[in-house]
Specification:
Elements (H helix, E strand, L loop, with lengths): L2 H23 L12 H6 L10 H12 L6 H19 L10 H16 L5 H18 L4 H18 L3 H16 L6 H24 L3 H12 L19 H16 L11 H26 L6 H19 L3 H10 L1 H8 L1 H9 L1
Helix pairs in contact: 1-4, 1-5, 4-6, 6-7, 6-14, 6-15, 7-8, 8-9, 8-13, 9-11, 9-13, 11-13, 13-15
């Protein structure tokens, strides 16, 4: 092992250890709002246990595994160890020890994962599943068609049983692929633009059938329901009511930019945790967007990495439809961190696989 690789491994282990300590001890110092979902998952207050829906599935998972009977510190130890092992299997990038923007994003993410895995949580299930998809791409590069079909089926399966928005992610990923096969310039911008149009069309079509648009049913109604409950000054609320076709269309675009390029988050100047998220998110999106463009320049034929970006940016668009606030947005991004991690360092991992 070279000196650089040794330093990168030590850095990976150091921040993994920090995350592990937080995962073990987080129950003793994190505010109560971080454990909002935990009683529902542990005690099944509304008798929801089952196999369809994020809460029923999570309740069943913790029941069958017996994790619900362990202390939170042990749960944190087990969950974080599994998550970081899967990330380790994806790989340790070259120069991980250097102070670069993408490395800083990863360092902070290891700590955030420790925070969000110190309790029974749906994000643990999400991390394991997404890591499985990333490893599938990493290990099956010689049969891209089969890997893509398997991945899309896995996303559809996950969407049917766990979180429905993964159905839309699978659909948008295919849309991204079809758009990228055209002669349109600036494919990274074009795929996101048309992806947003498709997401809007799906929501409007849903509204025609169900009588209520998707973001109106999810984000807006959720934020409305908790106005008299727990205060949340990072709530994402469209300035235009989403009960009309133009209001819903604007609301989805507004949600996408509020979450992924949250410049409007600087209005929370007196909330340091929100400002920190704004900087982290802006840095993350800009870096991934640039790398997405770079990946396109390598062509789309036999380019498995481009599908990682299709899935990732489809998720970002879907967040614009569903996410109720910035806190939920960062929690859910940690749930897909394995794919973010791979996208940040895809060129390094690609070179390693070619050796």
């Amino acid at each position: 092992m070279s000196l650089k690789a040794h330093k990168s491994t030590l850095t990976f282990l150091f921040f993994s250890f920090l995350g592990l300590v937080i995962a073990i001890l987080g129950v003793f110092f994190l505010p109560e709002r971080f454990f909002f979902d935990t009683p529902t998952i542990l005690f099944d207050r509304y008798n929801e246990i089952g196999w369809r829906g994020s809460y029923p599935f999570a309740i069943m998972f913790y029941h069958l595994t017996g994790l619900k009977h362990l202390s939170f510190s042990i749960i944190g130890l087990i969950q974080f160890s599994i998550a970081i092992y899967l990330i380790f299997k994806i790989g340790i990038p070259k120069n991980f020890h250097k102070t670069t923007a993408k490395n800083l994003i990863s360092y902070l993410s290891f700590i955030l994962i420790g925070i969000f895995l110190c309790m029974p949580t749906k994000e643990f299930i999400n991390i394991v599943y997404i890591a499985t998809i990333v490893l599938l791409f990493k290990k099956n590069k010689h049969n891209l068609s089969r890997t893509v079909i398997t991945t899309l089926l896995l996303l559809i399966f996950f969407g049917y049983f766990f979180r429905e928005y993964y159905l839309l992610i699978a659909f948008l990923s295919v849309v991204f692929y079809l758009i990228s096969k055209t002669n349109i310039k600036n494919k990274n911008i074009a795929t996101i633009f048309y992806g947003l149009l498709v997401a809007i069309s799906v929501s409007l079509s849903y509204g025609v059938v169900k009588g209520e648009f998707i973001s109106q049913k999810t984000r807006e109604s959720y934020n409305e329901s908790r106005k008299n409950g727990v205060a949340n000054n990072s709530a994402i609320t469209s300035p235009i009511k989403t009960d009309s076709w133009y209001g819903e269309s604007f609301g989805i675009v507004y949600g996408f930019f509020s979450i992924n390029l949250p410049i409007n988050g600087f209005k929370h100047i007196l909330s340091p945790q929100i400002i920190a998220f704004v900087f982290w998110q802006l840095l993350l999106f800009i870096i991934l967007f640039i790398r997405y463009e770079r990946c396109f320049k390598e062509g789309i034929i036999d380019n498995s990495e481009i599908w990682i970006f299709y899935i990732l940016f489809s998720f970002f668009i879907v967040q614009g439809v569903f996410e109720p606030d910035l806190g939920s947005a960062i929690r859910h991004k940690m749930g897909i961190f394995p794919i973010i991690y791979y996208a940040l360092y895809y060129d390094t991992f690609k070179k390693k696989n070619e050796l």
